[in-house]
Amino acid sequence: MAFISENNLAALIGTSNHTVQTWADKGLYPIREKNGKKGFDMKDLDAIPEIHAMLESKWEEELSVTPLRQYNSIELFAGGGGLALGMSLAGFHHVLLNEFDAAACKTLKTNKPEWNVIEGDVRHIDFTPLKGKVDFLSGGFPCQAFSYAGKGAGFDDTRGTLFFELARAVKEIQPKVFLGENVKGLVSHENGRTFETIRNAIAELGYQLVEPRVLRAMMYQVPQKRERLILIAVRKDIADRVCFRWPSPYHEVLTMQDALFKSVIFDCDVPASDGAVYPDKKRKVLALVPQGGDWRNLPESVAKEYMGGSWHLGGGKTGMARRLSLDEPSLTLTCSPCQKQTERCHPLETRPLNVREYARVQTFPDYWQFQGSMNEKYKQIGNAVPVNLAWAVGRSLIRLFNDIQTIMPEETQDCAKAVKEIIWEQSQLVQIKDAKTQTSMAKRQVYKQLDFFDLFEKYALDSIADNSMAHESVCAEYGNLELADCPIDLNKKVLVSLVKKDNEQMFVDGSATVYYTGKRFPTTVALNQLYYFVPYIKGKGVRDLFFIKAVRLGYRKEGTEEEDKRDLRLVFEIKRTRRLFEEYKPVELKIWRTFTDTTIGELLKE
Q1: Under CATH, domain 67-252+385-424 is a member of which superfamily?
Q2: CA 113, CA 122: separation in Å to the nearest integer?
Q3: Which of 323, 334, 477, 588 can bridge 345 by disulfide, Cβ–Cβ 3.0-4.6 Å?
Q4: Helices (H), strands (E): how many in the chain?
C-alpha cells in the first residue's frame, strides 16, 4: 500500500492539516493508519491531481533521458551549486558559471575544478563572444525591487535589477532556451506588476514563455516542503515546433528519515560535520518540544518568556520553537538553522541541523564539500535550489533539446576561445580593481574656465566633440549592436560630474538624455577625448554609466519656456548603458568639487 500521512498530504496539495483532518473525519476518503500515523492509501486519493500525477509517474523512465549531443550551458548567480549540479547531472555541459560570493565560488571550484567559474559582479561581464555558441542559459536571479517608471513595462523597466542582467545575457548570447528561478511570491509581487514586467521583457527578447509553474520540491524526491517558481522560455523561431513537458513527480513523499539515514536517495547515514549550537537557555526550552511540535507544545509561562513580543502577535507563528519530524519533509530551509522565527531543530537531538544534514535536506550528495565559514556554508545551502528538483527539471529540458535536435539538427559549438576571451577580460578588470591606491601627492593644478562666448563665435553652436565614430569602431567587431551593448573600455576617458538637485531623479532612474554644465567648465578637460559620463549624486556618490554621444554648445533650459540664449552652457548628449557599482560609491570630485576627468579603469580602482 502506498501510504501518505494527513500532514504530508496537506503539505503536498498546499492546504491546512485541519482541512485534511476534516476530510478524514467526514469519511471523504477512507482513513488508514501506519506506524501510529493517520493517513490514506494513495490509490483512494486518485481524484486529487497531485496524487494522480504521482500514481501515474514516469520518474524511472525519465531517469534514462540522455542528451543526443553535448548541449553547452551557462549559469548565472550559481551560488553553492544546487541548480548547476542538478543541470550537470541531467546532461548539460557548463562552459561558464558566474557568482559574486567568494566562498560560494570556492565551493564550485573545489567540487568541479573543470568548471570555468568567474567570481565577480555579473554587470561587468560581456557575454557577446558566446553569441550563437551556447544552447542553454539558467540562473536563480535575486528578486530586487522593480521600477515601473517606463511605459512599456518590459526589458528597459527591469534595468537596475539582476533580472535585467540575466535578460542582458540572453540578449547577448541568444541561447535556444533559458531558465529563471525564483521564490513563488514573485508572481504576486506588487499585485502582479513585477511578473508582468518580466513576462513582457521575455517577449521583447524574442522568446516565448512556457506557462510558469511553482514546483513543490517534495514531489521531486526532495525531503523538504520548499516551493520554487520556474520560468522557462524558448526562442520564438523554435517555440512553435516543440513542446516542453514538465517532469513527472516521484511516486512517494520523502521525509527527514530519508534525509538523515540510509534511504532511496542516500546509501548511508548522514556523516558527521560541524554545525551551529544553541545557547543553554534556548536548548532547555526546545528540549520540551516533541517531534513535529512548536511553541504551542510548551508550558504557557515558558512560551510567553521565550516568544517575548511575538506572543501578542497574530498568526500561527508555527516556525517558532519548531522541532522537525522524522515522518515529514523538512520545513523550507533558510540561510540560518536557528533563527527564532524559523526554527529548524533536529528531530531527535536538541540542536540545529548541522551543515551536512542541511545539505542532505537540499539533496546535495555527501561528496559536495562547502567552503568558507560555517555561516557561509549554511547560507550557500539555504539559498540553493534542491539538487534533485533541478535534476528533474534538467531531464525535462534535455528531452526538449533532444526534440529540437531531431527537428533542427546542428553540431555543438566550440566555446573554448570565447570563454578564454571573457575570462581574460575579467582578469584585467580584477587587476585594476585590486591595484594598490596611489598615495603620492600630485602637484596642485590650476583650472581655468572655458570662455563659452569665444566657443560660440568659433563653433557657432556646432558639435564640439562628436564621439559617434568612436562608438562605431569599438562595436564593429561585435556586430550590429546598440551603444549600450558595447563592452566597457577601461582605458577610455570618463567625466564624473555633480548633477543639480532638481535634475537628480532623471539620472537616478536612467532616463536622462542630456547633461548641462554650470556656467564654469575646466579648460583641462579634453572634450574630444571624453567617451563616458558618470553622474555624481550629492550625498551618495556614483553608480551609473552613460555613453557620451556628442558634446555641443547650448543654452540653459533650452527647448523650454525658460530658455535663456544669453546663458551659454555645454550640453552633453548621453545614453545610459549600465551600472558600474551595485550601490552608490563615494568618489572624490577633484575639480572645484564638481568634476573629475579620469578613465573607467581609474574610477573602478578608487
Answers
A1: Vaccinia Virus protein VP39 (3.40.50.150)
A2: 21
A3: 323
A4: 20, 19
* 250-259: average pLDDT: 97
- Give the count of beta carbons closer than 10 Å to the beta carbon of residue 63: 11
Q: Where are the domains of the chain?
A: 3-56, 67-252+385-424, 256-367, 452-605
In the chain the first and final C-alpha atoms are separated, in Å, by 67
Question: Would you call 601 helix, strand, or coil by DSSP?
Answer: helix
Given 105, 143, 243, 486, the catalytic residue? 143
Burial-class residue 330 by CB neighbours within 10 Å (0-12, 13-18, 19+).
buried
Q: Lowest mean pLDDT: which of 46-50, 212-216, 432-436?
A: 432-436
Confidence of residue 147 (pLDDT cuts 50, 70, 90): very low
List pLDDT tens digits, range 281-333.
999 999 999 999 999 999 999 999 998 878 877 667 788 899 999 999 999 99
Query: What span, in angstroms and rounded, lies between the C-alpha atoms of 535 and 544?
Result: 7
pTM for the whole structure: 0.71
Nearest to 577 by CA among 165, 170, 174: 165
Estimate to the nearest angstrom the gap between the alpha carbon of 553 and the chain centroid. 43
Q: Is 143 designated active site?
A: yes
Quote the DSSP letter at residue 585.
B
